[in-house]
Amino acid sequence: MLTLAQQRAFRFIKQFIAEHGFSPSVSEVAEGIGIKSKGVAHRYIQALVDAHKIRLVPGRHRNIELIYNEEEDAEGGSGIPFLGKIAAGQPIEAIVNDEVLDVQALFAGHNCYALRVKGDSMIDEGIFDGDVVVCERCDVAHNGEIVVALVDNGDATLKRLQKNKDGTVSLIPANPTLKPMIYSAERVQIQGRLLGLLRIM
């Protein structure tokens, strides 16, 4: 059982990762929960590791990773986290959302999350503005897969992935009026691959 202070640290870490796309440092955790001691913040982080809420990845400066517990995310139900909105046009700032979408039975065995589509760049794939896409968390994807791509650690978009021979990455829309967006590979971070689509009328 986590203490209230440890729960506050966990909420801050989850919110920070959702907003920034990377984990906070120990100093940022301390500042974010209103304490001065990095040692105390480190103890809170270790308590979260011991409680299997997070893991620490060796060799990274920002080394905190969330461990997703589907039952806890659904508050005892059969849901998956509904994190917010995803662009299907130009990348937009991620918007944090704490809702739970009760479709776990459809995607059992996958580490999933849901996003509502904003924009019309994927309409030829049958993905329309307002649809809900269900994605599997991953940081690697293959050419031709539809992915959630984070650009410049800030803006996310839903596009088909193409890794080019010159080392660039193309994020390809499914709309003939739009052109592919091409970035150097280091600017693009894969955060998931499309598993399914829900259309909520």
Please tell me about this protein's structure:
The structure is a single chain. The protein has about 200 residues and is of the alpha+beta class. It folds into two domains: about 60 residues, Orthogonal Bundle (Arc Repressor Mutant, subunit A); about 120 residues, Umud Fragment, subunit A (Ribbon), CATH 2.10.109.10. It contains four helices and twelve strands; from the N terminus they run H-H-H-E-E-H-E-E-E-E-E-E-E-E-E-E. Strands 3, 4, 5, 6, 7, 8, 9, 10, 11 and 12 form a ten-stranded mixed beta sheet that branches. A two-stranded antiparallel sheet has the order 1-2. The chain is elongated. The protein starts with a helix and ends with a strand. About 5% of the residues have low confidence.
Describe this protein with a few key phrases.
12 strands; Umud Fragment, subunit A; 10-stranded mixed beta sheet; alpha+beta; 201 residues; 4 helices; elongated; single chain; Arc Repressor Mutant, subunit A
User: Could you estimate the helical fraction of the residues in percent?
Assistant: 10-25%
The number of distinct helices, counting runs of at least 4 residues, comes to: 4
Average pLDDT metric? 83
Per CATH, the superfamily of the largest domain is Umud Fragment, subunit A
The largest sheet, given as strand count, sense and whether it forms a barrel, is: 10 strands, mixed
Number of domains: 2
Strand fraction: 25-35%
End-to-end C-alpha gap: 40 Å
The count of strands amounts to 12
Q: What is the CATH first-level class name of the largest domain?
A: Mainly Beta
